Amino acid sequence: MAAADLDTVSALFEIPELHEAWPGVDRSTFEDMVAGADPGVGWVVEHGGDAIGFIQYYEDGDPHYRSASIDIALHPDRCGRGLGTDAVRTLARHLFDDCGHHRITIDPWVGNARAIASYRKVGFRHVGVMRRYELADDGTWRDGLLMDLLADELQD
Description:
Layout (H helix, E strand, L loop, with lengths): L5 H7 L3 H6 L5 H9 L5 E7 L2 E11 L6 E8 L8 H16 L4 E4 L6 H10 L2 E11 L5 E10 L6
Parallel strand pairs: 3-4
Antiparallel strand pairs: 1-2, 2-3, 4-6, 5-6
């Protein structure tokens, strides 16, 4: 993601469904990432020349762990077509093959059944429920589902 992508990505997170799913995320989040003030690495997800989403990862560089965590958001009109599954699988391959990680985690809201099903298609497995994991914009705490994927479990 580059500075030229800030308007596009910020607008994506103004969509009510994505704003609800990513509490606290706004333009400043992505400005920090582009400026290097945030340790995450983000990309715009494109399909057919259109920006349809955002995907990111954070690395644990300790050689005793060599793992990464990822997140993805797609425009609601582009869900249900396998595009998110493909983006997650592509990022997982990059993290395993190019970055040398052996494990990836993802932590969707437990109520996000569509995302959880997509992650399972890539090979992610349930690790456990993180109770009262994230504070939603309405002031309530939501549980998160911790899922992980080992390099030899990646499914094509």
